Amino acid sequence: MRRPNARTGPRWRSIALLAILIGSAVGCRKKPAAPAPPPAQSPVELPAPTPTVPPSDSAAAPAAERTLAMFQLGLTYATGQPPVQDRKRAREVFEELIALYPESELRPHAELILQLLAQLETLQDANRSAERQIQQLNEKLEQLKKIDMGPRPP
After folding, report:
1. Which domain holds residue 110?
2. CB atoms within 10 A of CB 76
3. Looking at the 3D structure of the chain, how many domains does it have?
4. In this structure, how many other beta carbons lie within 10 angstroms of the beta carbon of residue 59?
5. Residue 63 domain-assigned?
């Protein structure tokens, strides 16, 4: 009989799935390539240093980093464990990301997560309502059992 590996349990599968989702949402960004330095003309002359990020993209780099940080923060609030988990705050972070950075490549992902959070809230409300209804029916059933178990007339 094969002994189960600790890395094949449900926790590792959940972590792997979350890593794949985050990687597919975030890891596909292309980074600007650094321009190649010009060839040296003599051993004494060194070429002037060239910037790694073109000047036109230098303003976009901090915005991209901020959107990524906001997206990761929203994911943390949305999927964290109860002390960290705050779906209301997650919604606020994703809505802020969409409002501040409408051209971000993470916007479609943020919108999808907002839709999923709304669906989750709707389903949780329906579940709470169904649980209340089940509790009321169980209470009524217990009352009917007491009536049925009572003394019978001769």
Report:
1. 13-25+58-149
2. 15
3. 1
4. 9
5. yes
For the full predicted model, state whether its pTM sits above 0.85.
no
How many Cβ atoms are within 10 Å of 6's Cβ, its own excluded?
Answer: 8
**In the numeric block, which tokens belong to residue 5?**
């590996």
Q: Residue 89 falls within a domain, yes or no?
A: yes
Note whether 106 and 63 are within 8 A (CB): no
CA distance 135 to 138: 5
Q: Which two tokens stand for residue 31?
A: 């980074």
Distances (CA, A) of 21 to 66, 87, 118, 141: 19, 18, 19, 46
Q: What is the pLDDT of residues 52-82, one digit of tens each?
A: 444 445 556 788 899 999 999 999 999 888 7
The answer to whether residue 109 sits within a structural domain is: yes
